[in-house]
Amino acid sequence: MPLPNNALVLVTDGRKLLLLRNHGDAAQIDLRVERHDERSDQKNGEMTTDAPGTNQQSGGYGRTAYEETDFHQLEEDRWAKQAAERVNARALRNDFDALAIIAPPRTLGELRKCLHKAAASKVVCEIDKEMTGRPIADIEALLVAHTARAELADV
């Protein structure tokens, strides 16, 4: 489906967030930045205080170590949830009629889980790709190519 005028485009990856608005129309996409956020990347020592725990085995000798928590992934999941909350608030205010989401596969999955039904019903395009570090022209080209493939698939 072509990206209509005034559609909102969410580009995120767990560290950066871009909210773009299509000021063009379905034939000519013209994205402009509405919001840009980026979180600072913390080191493991700043996030953890202990080594992973251990567990006494019921039979035999020794201890089994628990798997260490991936705090960076937890932060990225939390970031995706916050991005979804921003989109949800805008959807409930009827700030947009169509939504396109561009995010890596894991982040896209987290976004899907957290989107309100009002926002989820407005999704016209989902692309599982990392694009936060790319210029807006590349994002526009990706959306044009994706909508062209979708139109060919519908024929």
In short:
With 155 residues, this protein is of the alpha/beta class. The protein is 38% helix and 24% strand.
Question: Explain this structure to me?
Answer:
The protein has a single domain (8-39, 72-154), classed as eRF1 domain 2 (Nucleotidyltransferase, domain 5). It has helices at 44-47, 71-92, 105-114, 117-120, 136-154, and strands at residues 8-12, 16-22, 31-38, 54-56, 63-65, 99-103, 123-128. The radius of gyration is 20 Å and the shape is globular. The chain is of the alpha/beta class. Strands 3-2-1-6-7 form a five-stranded mixed β-sheet, sandwiched between helices. Helix content is 38%, strand content 24%. The two termini are 12 Å apart.
Describe the secondary-structure layout.
Elements: E1 8-12, E2 16-22, E3 31-38, H1 44-47, E4 54-56, E5 63-65, H2 71-92, E6 99-103, H3 105-114, H4 117-120, E7 123-128, H5 136-154
Parallel strand pairs: 1-6, 6-7
Antiparallel strand pairs: 1-2, 2-3, 4-5
Helix pairs in contact: 2-3
Throw out a few tags for this protein.
five-stranded mixed β-sheet, globular, alpha/beta, two-stranded antiparallel sheet, 5 helices
The assigned structural class equals alpha/beta
The H-and-E topology, N to C, reads as: EEEHEEHEHHEH
Number of strands: 7
Low-confidence stretches: none
CATH class: Alpha Beta
Broad shape: globular
Query: What is the average per-residue confidence, as pLDDT, rounded to a whole number?
Result: 85
User: In CATH terms, what is the architecture?
Assistant: 2-Layer Sandwich
What is the gyration radius calculated from CA atoms?
20 Å
Report the end-to-end length measured between terminal Cα atoms.
12 Å
The largest sheet is: 5 strands, mixed
CATH 4th-level superfamily: eRF1 domain 2
Count up the helices.
5
Helix content: 25-40%
Strand order of the largest sheet: 3-2-1-6-7
What number of structural domains do the residues give?
1
Strand content: 15-25%
- Looking at CATH, which topology would you report? Nucleotidyltransferase, domain 5
Q: Give the oligomeric state of the chains in this entry, treating copies of one chain as homo and distinct chains as hetero.
A: single chain
